[in-house]
Amino acid sequence: MSFGAMSFGVRRARVRLGTHLALDDVTLEVEPGSVVAVVGGDGAGKTTLLRALVGEVVLDEGDVAAPDPRSIGYLPATTGSWPALTVRQNVDFVGGIYGLSGAHLDARRDELLERAGLTTASDRTSAQLSGGMRRKLGFCLAMVHEPQLLVLDEPSTGVDPVSRVDLWRLVSEAAAAGAAVVMSTTYLDEAERAARLLALDAGQVLAEGTLDEVIAAVPGTITVSPVRHDHGRSWRRGLLHHEQWPAGSELPADAQVVVPDLEDAVVALSLARRAGAA
Q1: Which of 47, 119, 124, 183 could form a disulfide with 128 if both were Cys (CB 3.0 to 4.6 A apart)?
Q2: What gap in Å lies between CA 217 and CA 264, rounded to an integer?
Q3: How far is CA 91 from CA 213, 218, 265, 273, in A?
Q4: Contact at 8 Å (CB) between 152 and 79?
């Protein structure tokens, strides 16, 4: 896989953390003006991949294509702000680090806080904000210098539904303005909005591509049933059991075949990979 002249990403990345292989031959590419969502369960390698992309983790093997660090915006999985500083002071502090000052900084701060719905909270400390407001502030800090590459580590985890909508709007606006956006998320309904997806499990790529391409990568058939058939590839969603059956399997009479969504696809691909590795 070769990157375009303007795209960013990692190619054939391997990262070892002690004896643990956190990333194993992972490739990710993102183009300006688009959003790539990285999905997977705990320990999948999402945070390690994002940290490698922004230079916080050094690859043992592979290549990184990223702009100058001053052209990268990064929101870590933590709040990404200073709790003792007010909202305004947080933005001014980070803006100053990137060389913004005077009327330019004032205009940029006011624009971001208005878009994030934080104008009325500008004199409150970060510690006084709700979880959703802190994450939106962290996004503003990552965006204040208008980076070419915006990297967001689970920006909406633990955030209320209304703030999740606000955060996704900010992400979409950043991409529309020309930023290349990479975000990890545990909310698969949210990930479905991205232009491309990268699904990871235990540091390995399960599938990559558009939503339709990832779903098409699911082997066999997905069914739903009120009872669980003990064959090792089932998971519960609400009151129903979803199951993945290899091609050619004889399906139980009470199993209804369904078209998988992204959640089904990621779980089924993970279970299939683990069964193949066993």
Answers
A1: 124
A2: 11
A3: 39, 44, 39, 44
A4: no
What is the per-residue pLDDT across 131-181, written as a single tens digit (0 to 9) for each? 999 999 999 999 999 999 999 999 988 888 888 888 999 999 999 999 999
Structure tokens given for 164 = 């999740």
Max distance between CA atoms of the chain, in angstroms, equals: 71
Residue that is written with structure tokens 């069914």 in the block:
223
Return the structure tokens found at 135.
């994450």
Q: Which CATH number fits domain 8-207: 3.40.640.10, 3.30.479.10, 3.40.50.300, 2.60.120.10?
A: 3.40.50.300
DSSP E strand boundaries for the chain: 8-17, 20-30, 35-39, 61-65, 72-75, 149-153, 180-184, 196-201, 204-209, 221-225, 234-237, 240-245, 256-258
162 sits in which H/E element: helix 161-176
The SS3 call for residue 48 is: helix
Domain ranges of the chain: 8-207, 212-277
- For residues 144 and 133, give the distance between their C-alpha atoms in angstroms, rounded to a whole number: 16
Of the candidates 148, 165, 100, the one whose C-alpha atom is nearest the C-alpha of residue 110 is 100
Q: Spell 5-39 as b/e; 16+ CB within 10 A means b.
A: eeebbbbebbbeeeeebbbbebbbbbbbebbbbbb
Tally: H helices and E strands in the chain: 8, 13
Residue-wise pLDDT tens digits, 185-232: 988 989 999 999 999 999 999 999 999 999 999 999 999 999 998 667
Query: Inter-axis angle of helices 102-116 and 131-143, to 10 degrees?
Result: 140
pTM equals: 0.93
